Amino acid sequence: MSEAIVQLRNVTKRYIRGKQSVDVLEGLNLDIAKGEFVALMGPSGSGKTTLLNLIGGLDSATSGEITVAGQRLDQLGQGGLARWRANHVGFVFQFYNLMPMLSALRNVELPLLLTRLSASQRKTNAMAALTLVGIADRAKHKPNELSGGQAQRVAIARALVADPILLVCDEPTGDLDRKSADDVLHLLQVLNREHGKSIIVVTHDPKAAEFASRQLHMDKGALLEAGTLA
Amino acid sequence: MKYFPLIWSTLWRKKTRTIFTLLSVAVAFLLFGMLETVDYAFRHPSGGVTGADKLVTTNKYSITLSLPFSDAQQIRSVPGVAEVTWISWFGGYYQESKNFIFALPIDTDSYFNLHKGEFVVSDEQMQAFRNTRTGALLNEALMKKYGWKVGDKVPLHSTIWTQKSDGSLDWTFDVVGSVSVKDPTQASAQSSTLLFHYEFFDEGRSFGKGTVGWFEERVEDPLQAAAISNRIDALFANSPNETKTQPANDFTMAFMKQFGDIGFVLRAILGAVFFTLLFLTGNTMMQSVRERIPELAVLKTLGFGDGKVLGLVLAESLLLCLMAALVGLALSYATLPIIKQGLRGVELSPTALLPGIGAAVLLALIVGLPPALRAMRLNIVDALAEKH
To answer: Is the pTM of this model over 0.80?
Structure first.
């Protein structure tokens, strides 16, 4: 196996809700190689999104070690995690989560506000990202003027624009029709194969999972099996 | 600056709400500007008697109580006093009470000697004034306002003094000349001045004969003003008419306070307005942040740190309040001439509007901080799942 971009060792995530303690992940171990396209599947409540949040540095583990892109995330504070996210990971959500009052271009430019790039460089890079996902002609449109598939492409452009090493996608096709979903998944596949992006996708859709190079199945906070597809 | 487009777009996310909030804050700052200017004018009077070498002696207990004219001789004898003159409040207006005239009965020689170099009157007109018992010198602006000219008879209504001859409150003066002030900063404050003879006034009134409203003194050495004030008051200690001598500026302020503690009234009104505004704008900001918690969570997901999110919300609040304040203060600046017309003798200064900017910043911080803290403390996972 090539160099691991994600390494989880004995990771546990426990939520406290009132007096109740819920173990969502229990002693989880996982390795994802650099350049892999992994589909994470499983029933609702199995812990897929929790695992994705831990790998993306959005949440902290209760115990265990999480190493992503060579960085021990379990050793970073909130500020450190924010900086790490800005530099290493791009996020794609089911409902796109675009800023409704900003144009597609401005939405894509958002992560670049955290860099030292000039305004013109930011605009150039944002346009390049929109071109890459095939939606440059909609740069000036606001999210409510875009179709679901187009909005998700803008979200993918936003996730890509800062050139992260890892893309984490939570049900990226969950709100799309089959055609748009396939287009988006195909785009992710291109980004994985031609641009070397490591991608982790959480999905319920077996057809979506077929685009991945590996499928992982989760149930009740544990990984059931790990298979590698051709 | 690179965050400005984001802040600006967020501010206009709900256009109608933002416009109404802006309007309500702007109206509050319009009121703030108007009241603050008036308060400033009353706290920094430029009209009336001014100058470090001028003192004013009034009745110790109230400036509405008169003093015997004979006190003038005793005051003049106090070492360090260069000149003494005496004046009474006439309380005059022309035809209608809104046409206030700052009419003052004066002793010609001592008044112009005390105010040497402050007024401009031609020798010919001054001579005419001295020779005419019912004569009056009017400020040029006042003459222009009512179209009066030398030779006209001007009837004034006094709110206090009845005439001995017929019990009437109406007094008629002959316009013999015009008077203007050399100091341009005093021009507005003196714009409704009418000077006439104290002798004519004292002989003509039906009561109060031999008394004066107050004395004005010019001292030889302004550094000795406090000591001279004490000496004057000591002269009349334990007499039926004890006195209070104070610097001219203090007297002018005390005179203004006859109308009540204007500062307190104005601040009370402003306090009520801003208290209401705090709730209104604070609620709007809270609602605005509550509505876009998922968006704020996305910003945090993208790598915006807690401090940046806090700063963005505070900057939005600051932008809203400052924009509205500038509109409100600009409108109040535009109303200065109208207020000035309503408050004759009071000089208004635009510098009084400056605290408005400070008030806007303070308002922005107070209303912006709670939602900004909430945004800062947002848990990304909960917010994305809309468990807020």
So the answer is: no
